[in-house]
Every structure is written in structure tokens, then in C-alpha cells.
Amino acid sequence: MSAGHHWLVIGGVLFVLLNTAAGLIWLERRMLALWQDRYGPNRAGPFGILVVLADTLKLFFKEDWIPPFADKVVFVFAPAVVVASVLLSFTVIPFAPNVLVADFNVGLLFFLAMSSMGVYSIVLGGWASNNKYALLGAMRGASQMISYEVFMGLSVMGVVILSGSFNLREIVEAQKSGWYILPQIVGFFIFLIAGIAETHRLPFDIPEAESELVAGFHSEYSGMKFGMFFIGEYMGITLISAMVVTLYFGGWLGPAFLPPVIWFVLKTFAFIMLFILLRASMPRPRYDQLMEYGWKILFPLSLVNLLITAAIKLML
Amino acid sequence: MAIIHIDGKSYDVKEGRNLLEACLSLGIDLPYFCWHPALGSVGACRQCAVKSFKDEKDTKGRLIMSCMEPVKDQLRISVTDQEASAFREQVIGWLMTNHPHDCAVCDEGGSCHLQDMTVMTGHSYRNYHFTKRTYKNQYLGPFLNHEMNRCIQCYRCVRFYKDFAGGKDMDVFAAHNHVYFGRHKEGTLESEFSGNLAEICPTGVFTDKTLKQHYTRKWDMTYAPSICQGCSLGCNIIAGERYGSLRQISTRYNGAVNGYFLCDRGRYGYEFVNSPRRIREIAIRNSTLATITADDALRHLKDKLTGGRVIGIGSPRASLESNFVLQQLVGQDQFYLGMTHTEHDLATLALKILKQGPVRTPSMQEAAAADAVLILGEDLLNTAPMLGLAVRQAVRRQPTQDAMNAAHVLAWQDAAVREAMQDRNGPCFILNIQPTGLDEIATRAYHAAPDNIARIGFAVAQVLGAPVTVITDLTEEERQLVQQIADALSAAARPLIIAGYGMGNEASLRAAADVSWALHAQGKPAMLSFTMPECNTLGLEMLGGLRLDSAVDAVLNGEVDTVIVLENDLYRRMDKHTADHFLKHCKDLVLLDHLYNATAEKATVLLPAGSFAESDGTLVNNEGRAQRFFQVYGATGAIQESWRWLLQLGAITGNERLRHMQFLDDVTEAIAKRQPVFAGIDHLTPPADFRIAGQKIPREPHRYSGRTAMQANVNVSEPKPPVDDDTALSFTMEGYRGEPPSSMIPFFWWPGWNSVQSINKFQVEIGGSLHDGDPGKRLLEPNGNSNGNGHIPWFTDAPEHFVPMAGHLLMVPVYHIYGSEELSVHTPGIAERSPGAPYIMLNPDDAKRYEVAEHHQLQLAVNGHPYTFTVKINPALHRGMAGVPVGLQGIGIAEVPELGKL
Amino acid sequence: MFSLLRSMWLVFLHMFHKRETYQYPEEKAPLPARWRGRIALTRDPDGGERCVGCYLCAAACPVDCISLQATEDEHGRRYPEFFRINFSRCIFCGFCEEACPTYAIQLLPDFEMAEYNRQNLVYEKENLLINSQGKYPGYNYYKVAGMAIGGKDKGEAEREEPPVDIKSLLP
In Å, how far is B217's CA from the nearest CA of chain C? Predict the structure, then answer.
């Protein structure tokens, strides 16, 4: 790959990602409305698409307010962490055979490392806000994300065993003979649930839990700093969807009548839709239920899945 | 004490009361209508029924009326008994059959005893579907509104008006279910106490007409505990405000002072506070400024006060605080009491008598408990009306006692007592220059010249054993009278002597003192009460200062540059010519006042002072009782309390004596510290930082409405509510909701008791003192050393017999409850009742001699200045005297007695 | 687990349902007659003001946004001298209507009261008084209350006897 191509890919990925995240705001509102028999945003532009622009403008022009009681440096730093960590994760994702930022041989581990970084933004944001709701949200976020990370890592090990590689491009290529969704159906579900928890999306939005904690860890945030948390969340959705597609649904693979990148995008969007549907239909579990579910069900299940996968691999 | 059992619980209660009082004192809610703590029981309304049981085994019991049943030891009753409560509900159902159910347009609504009792009995559904009886209403004068349809025939109105207050022009008419309470024909109710009907009536038959003109519900007013400024008695009042204007005065119960009632001048004389004549802006003569701020005025005055020689003239109608701060501002030797010559003499003498003599001055309720009364030269119903009401109660003491002994009834069994006593009255002797409204209850009423009255007083004292120079030239009639009075007073257990400013005669005060001291020397707990001309005359006299005459001299001699006049119209303190002359020679005249008057016309600097409704302060009444009144609402515009203006002047001129004084508590503390006679007045009421459960006491009831709309026409963003830094009261509805200390109860309300009857809940026992004592502090106590005759400072010399002077008339004062007082007359209702144009009252013989008849004009020269009056003939007046209604607007004469030359 | 999937499926099916939204400015929602919207002062069948200035609405108002002053005409009929509602505080709870003994104050099915300037949300009597009986036609308070007003003397209301002749001795 030439340097020019490389920069083009980086620029393209950044552009598409950021726009996707922004567009998701609109998409989510429209889809939620659709599933709730409403219209959603429909005034600004065709199908209300310009509501994204309006929202962005609003966020940009809001007062850049830091509460006087906050820890100022950390308060500013926290929202940057979430955006940076998610964006960095995208570097290892193969969008198409030639479209990826870094062909990293431990790409999967890098992804896990980066998603762990996301915890910092929540903890730091909640801590720096110096607000009891924010702190409660941050504590919940930290324990939830650290817990679910454990078996997120374990669940993808099945894929690693099958493909024999941590390199995501190689994992996709290894699926040419068959998507890992079939052999790794349990791993897929565990990864998906852990992914939802990692992005603290509904129904696992316990760190925010607006009916209990105002707005959780970002109660004190407003303007573009809130906007970064907001964008970070939608990029997180995109990331998890892309990872699911990469690990279990053959990435860019698909019949040749569409270019590989389109296949990737289509599959990713299907999972994004699933995320939105979850939000439209699921109630939020209680915090202790969430932890119990993680440690007592998903964690053993992921170990069993790893054991069986390894055994089968050995036997074959 | 007796033990009674109510619903299975045992209580220790006082014997001699009735069961209803006992229950209410215990905090048990029992409905009633016809009973009133001051009027006693008649058992007419059948509303207070309870079950009475013979003994423990009796389960059936029988219904009794609790108000008619004396407390007896081991009595067993049930209030909650089903039959009793069903009975009470039915009774109220019957009472309500003809009630018009027009609460929405009824002024009583929200403070209505009938509403409260209806809710209390649980009568919630009307079973009567036939037609309702109706009545025509009557016009009853400017004070009361009549709406007979609402009547429930409890008879309280006539029992108060006729039996208690001695009114003649109201009664019950017609028969059976048509009984009608009103006058025999339309017209003004004449009694001085008619306004109490609005509070006595348990529903809306009699309502306050002045309130109706700016009607506000009880829950919507901002209230403050206040003191009536209408006369020297210092009745406790509650003043209510809404939308920046004073709306209503109602009685604030004080078990020592005014009890449950007020006179009509006190109740209705408040509207001067809302008068268009109010001084609301600062004015500086010849000022070029378009608007003058307080700072401008203070800067302007700073030069005047620091450069020149300054004197201050106090006022008997200003608070002690204002007078004290003025005294400190100008210095003790430059402070003059703004009283007339005569008033000053009388006040000085009265204070001396009360301080040095051995006899106690009674509170008004103590006076009402007297059993023999001697009034020397005082027309009480016009000079101190509520004391007149107290005398009316006092004359009932002896016949009541007789009735109790003869018929074995108790004092509260009103109908039985009145039946037994018929129209007998106890000993009461009224000596005055002309007939008074109380003469009808007097054993003897005698009319004579002031000095002759004093001579009779001295003669009585002499008979009672006082070392008085023998008076020989009494007529036979007078001698008999003297003997009769002396006998009656000696026979009485608690004799009361009343004198005062009514005749402007010092000798009558001395005579009264001698009589009471002689009784004291006989070992009787005699009482001596002096009326004073204004609400704070005694307080000002105790504060002390120079005579007003010397201020005139000082100014005329050119020794003074600036005169500061505090809440005073000098034209009421000196005759017009002296005042004109005086004011002409004042280089600078600074006036702090609230109503525009003749003095304000001459002032070079006019500072708008707060009226009693906009000020905090202390007054000393005729008893020597210091009482605090509180600001009802935050003053608008430039208006400030006088003492605050003066403190600001003190601050800007760097006055050492006023240093560190800023709030009310600072001032009262300084008064108490610097003037030992006022010791304790800083603790009359709790201090400004007093809190109950961390909260202030709210001036507004918890149902106060309209907070976010009342100012919205000006600005939709609500202003910050005013803050009261001076007292523990708050201007809002936020604060402690329980019972406040008795000295700062802004309004009487209790859950389930919205009407004024809720007072029951604030008393130690029904009709007794408030829970933590009756407010106010007595500053004067008799001189305890003078037990024997030797220490009593007797007055030994009686004045000379009055001899008419040829070509001259001795002008004596005639007072009017409506009209003589300076401020209340600026109230439309009071003005309507005032006698109108100044007149001169003559004996028919004098009239004949000077060839005038009724309505003629008579010209008199007083101090060389001519005055013209319309003649009124009064045969009771002594020859050679002329009655002049001092204080009436436009009279020109400020000071009597005075000789008038024809 | 199954119920979760089932609810997801059911929600998903809503994609094919009709939308409930009224496209508001173009399409008005039909409001029920008892909708608690703009507050008005109504008139009685004779065209007189129903409000008698009893202050009960003001007392009932939980946000204290009603203030008024009662006054009386020369014949004794009570009416509000001014009547002010601060709609920027009003929460449209309808307590005032419930408290009103004369059916004068009524909440109407109208909510389009938005203003750019908050001051314009302060309604005075002339803004509140409508020329209609509102929801309760036929009711006239003075026809049942015992007060005499112009055109209705004592004893002329419903279920009232003529005034008592107190000079009469008849039983």
C-alpha cells in the first residue's frame, strides 16, 4: 500500500465514522419513532435529516461551562478519552481487503485494550464532576465495564482458536469457508451482550440511568464536551457492530455483485439497527441483576464455550 | 380542682366553670354558638350537647348542654358519643335550613364560626328542600353591614350590644321563626362598641363595612400584631394589609388589656394610613432637584445639623423609639416634649402620682373587676372608650355577687344572673362638667365646674380620712353626695378611682389620688386609673424633656437654627397665632410625619414617616404598660420609620450617642440601658434573631394567595420579598406554623378554627391570659415604701370654688370619640360620625345673658385673638363655662381650659 | 429470554403500524370539551359577570398565580375590580375551576398561548372575560344566593319566601 492510499484510508475512515456517528443520532430518533408509531424529527430538511446539523450547531454554540466545583483539567480530559479510544479501535478493523488503517497482528488484543480505555472517560468524568450522581454513575460504569470486559475477551478467544490469528484481516479471510456465527453462536451472543454493556447502551445504560441518576456520569456536562460523550457512544455502537461483523459475520465477505466495503457497511448497519431496536423494546435491568447476570451466567458460559471450541479444534 | 372523666379519660379542671369552657380549655373541640367567653352561657343554641353519665355503670347516659353544666367532681361525660354528635349535627342542620348559603359573597367566609362549626359537626348534606325565609336588611351606619338572611338566631348580638355594652338602639324584633335583629328603624348604630358585632356574630349578619370597601379574605392578608393609636389605653389590635393598603383592624386578645373587644374608633379609625393626604415623597423647600432621594435629603440635612444649633420636638403619638432617637440626636437639653402646656402639666402630675403614691394603676381587665367606681371629670366613652366598657362591667360586680348568693347561680349563667339582678347596678359615681354616656349606669351623676368636681373629690378624701384642708362651702346636695360616695367606696372590696385629661384640670387628679390613697390607708386594694390624651403621652413623659413653651422662647430669641419636629402637628399643640409666629421664626423646620398637616405646610424639609402600620415601635399606655407594635407591611417609596430616618441622620452627622445603632433591637436596648425607668422594654418581644425550629414567624396565613400574580402587572418576574431585619416576623407566608410567643401573634388561627373564636386555643384557660402571659410590661408600680400615712405624699389643698367671671367664659374641653383624635378623623367613616363644625356649648342662662340662641354665632377672644363658634345649648353645663370640642378640625384652639373674653 | 425476544419482535412489528402523531401546526388535535387549557371568566345567562370575587380560586391555586380584588356595584352585586392570572406560572391543574362556587372560572380546550415575551402571559380581566356561559349553561349564582342585587330583591331568588314582615304578629 502506498502512503497516499494510506492517508486516504485514514481520512476516509475518519470522515465516514464521524458522519456515521452524527447520522446515527438522526437514524436512532427516526427508528425509535418508527417503532413507537411516531414520526421523529421531520421538520429540518428531508425526513428531518438536518436535525443533525441543528443539533451539532447547538452543541457547538452552547456555553462552554465548567462547574466551579469540578476538577477542571480532568473534567476537560475525560470526554476526549472516549472519542480517542473508540477512534483508535477502528484502526484495526478491516473494512475491505485493502481498506484498513493498520494491519496489526494483535489487532483483536488492541481492540480489547482500547475498549478498556473507555472506562477511564467514565470514571474520570464522573469523578471530576464532583457531583454525587455523577460519581455513582461512574462507579457503576467502572464495575459494569470491567466485569463485562472479562468475558468479552474470553468470548472472542473461540474465534481466535478457529482462525489461529489475532489479526482481524486474517480472521475475516479465515471465514471464507464459513462465517464463525455458526460454530461460535454462543460466543457471538456473549460478545454481543458484552458489547452492549461495554458501550453502556440500553438496556445496559446503568451508568446514565436518567430515571435514577439524572444523567449519571455526564450530569454536569454540556455543550461540546457533552457532545463528545454523545458522539463517543454512537461511535461505540458502530465499533461493536463492526467487530461483530468482522468476527462472526465474515466482515466484507459476500457475493460479488456488491463491492466488499458495501457488504461490510450493510452488515454493520444491520447490527446498528439491532442496537436501536434493543433500546426501543428493552427495560433497564437493576444494577445487581446486571452484575449477577454477567458473573454467574455469561462468565461461566464463555469459559465453557472456550473449552468446547478448544476441544473440538484439538480433536479435528 | 375537680376531676372529671371525658370519654374515659380523667382530667383535672377548675371548679366553678362550665363544662364547655372546661372542654375547650382542655383542647377538646366542641361546637358552640350562643356561648361567648365574655358573655356567658344562656343555653339557647343547643349546639354544645354532650352525654352525661350517672356513674361508671351507666351506659345509656343523657344529653346535656355542656355550657349550662357546672364542673363537678367525678362528672362523667362523653363528647364523642354517637348520640351526642348526631344531635349536634342535627341541630346545626336545623339552624342552617334558612341560611342562604351565599358564602362566596359573604364577608365572613373564611373566618366564619358557622362554617367552622358546620364542618366540625360533620353536617355536610342539606336535607331541607323547602323555601327559605328572607329578611330586608337595614342601613346601620358607616361601620357595619347588615345581612339578616344569614342569621342563625344565636342572640349573641343583642346580648353583647344591649347587655354587655349597654347599647339602646338595637334589639330583637318579631316572633317565632321570624325573629329579627336590628334597629327599630334604619339608622346608625349609636354604641361606641358596635364594631364588635362583626366579631361577636358567628356568621355574616354583621360584617365590617370598611373592610367590605376593599374586601379581602382573612387568609389573604398580611398581619402584624399592633397597638391601637386611637387613645391612651393601648388596646391590642391586629392590622391586616393587602396590595399595599391597610384593610382591617381586628381585636388581638390580651387578657389584661382589652380582652375580646375594641371600640369603634380603634377598629375603624385606620384608613388614614391609606389616605391621599399621606406624605409619600421627600420634599425640600426651594430644591432644584426633580426627584429627591433619601441620600440627597440626608446630605442636605447634614450641613444643617452639623453647622447650626438644633432642637428636636418629640411627639406623644410617636413611638418611644422615635422619640428616644430624636432625643439622642439633638441631645437631652435640646429635646422638647411636643405636648400642650396643659397636657404636659397633667402628664407630669399623673406620672408623679403613680410613681410616688402607694396605689396601683389597674389594667383594663382589673378595672373591669372593680366593685365601686368613682369617675372625676372624665367622659370615658369619648376619651377612653374601652375603659368605659370596663366600668360597665365593674358596676355589674356587686349585683352579680348578690345574685349568686341569693339565687345560687354561677356568674357565667348569664340569663339567670341578669334575671336575678334585674337592672340593679353597683356603686358608680360620675362627676363631670356635662352629662356622659355612662350616667345611666351611675348611682349618682353630678355635673359641675372642674374645680368644684375636684373639691368634691377632696371632700370625699377628707371623709375617708385624708389630711386635707377642710372644705366648708359645699352645698347640702354636694355634702350628701360626698357622704354617699365615701360610704360606697369604704364598703367596696376593690374600689376604682378614675380621673384624667378630660377636664384639663390638675386638681381633679390630685383629688382622685387623695381618695385612692385614703382608701389604701384603710387597707383596701384601691385602684387609680388616669386617662392620657394620646397613645404614648405617658411614655414620652417618662422619657422626659423640656416644655414646648421653652422651645418657642428659644426660637423666638434666635437661639435656634434648625427645628426637627417628630410626627407632630404643632397647630394642635399651640394656638394658631403662637404656632404661626413660632414657625415663621424657625430658619429650618424638618418635619417627619405621615399625614400632610398645617405644620407640613411650613416645613422646609419634609421626610415621609411610616404610620403605625409601616413601623415597629413601643408605646406606653395609661397603665404604664409598655407594648410593642409591629410593622404590617414594608413601606413603599421613600417612607421609613421615623426612628430609622433619625438614625440615618445620626449616622451621617457622626453622632456619638447613636453610634452602632441600626435596628430596632439596638434602639430598645439603648433605651433600656440609658433610662432605668424603661428597664426591660428590650425584652417586651423576642429579639430579631428569635427563631422557632429555625424559622421566623410568618405574617401571612399559610393559605395566602396570589403571590405570583399580585405584582405581575408591573413585572412578570416576581420581586424578592421584603426582608424584616428588625423583628422575628417575616413578611411572607414561610415560617413557623405553630403557636408564636404571645407578644407576637400576627393572627389567630387554628386548624378547624378559622374564625376569631380560635383565640380559645391560645389561652391558658378560657377568658384567661395567653399561653406565655399577656403581652406588655408594666413600667410603673406603686411606691411600696409608703405603707403608713406618713409616707403618702398627700395633696392637702383643694382648689378654690369656681366663680364665673363677668364678661368671660371658662372654656372647658368637650371630647368626641369620633373627631377629637388627630389621625382617625382622616378616615371616611369616622369623619362621617364626627360632630362636624366646631361649636361652643353654653348654659341657657349664659346664652340668655349674652343674647345668643342655638345655632347662633358667638365670638370670643382668647389671648387677644378672636374665634367664632356656633352656639349649642346644654343646661347641664355650669354657668360661666363654655364647652369647646378641642381637637376637632378647624377649631383653632389647641389648649383649654382657657378664659375666653366676650 | 423468550419474552425479551418476543417484545423485540413486537416492537419491530410496529414498523408497519399507522403513526399516531398529529402533524401539529398543519393538523390540529381534536381536544375534548373538558380539556384543561386557557382559563376564562364566563358570564351568566343574563350576560352578567359570573365571578363574584370570592377569592376561592386564588386560595386553591397551588402556584398562587391568581390575584383579584372584589368590589361591589351600587346594587350590591359583587364582581372583581381586577382579575389577573399569571399564565407564565399557571400549571393548568384546574383547581380554580373546581373551587369556583359560581362556575365563573373555567378551563377551555385551548392551549395555543405561547408568547415570545413573558410579560404578555399576564392576563387581566379584559383578556379573561368571554361572552359565553362556557361549559355550564343556564347557571346563575344570584338566582340561588340570598343576596339582593340590582333586578333581584330579597325573597326573589329560587326557593325563597318573600321577606318577613317583622311587624306582623301572625303565626
Answer: 7
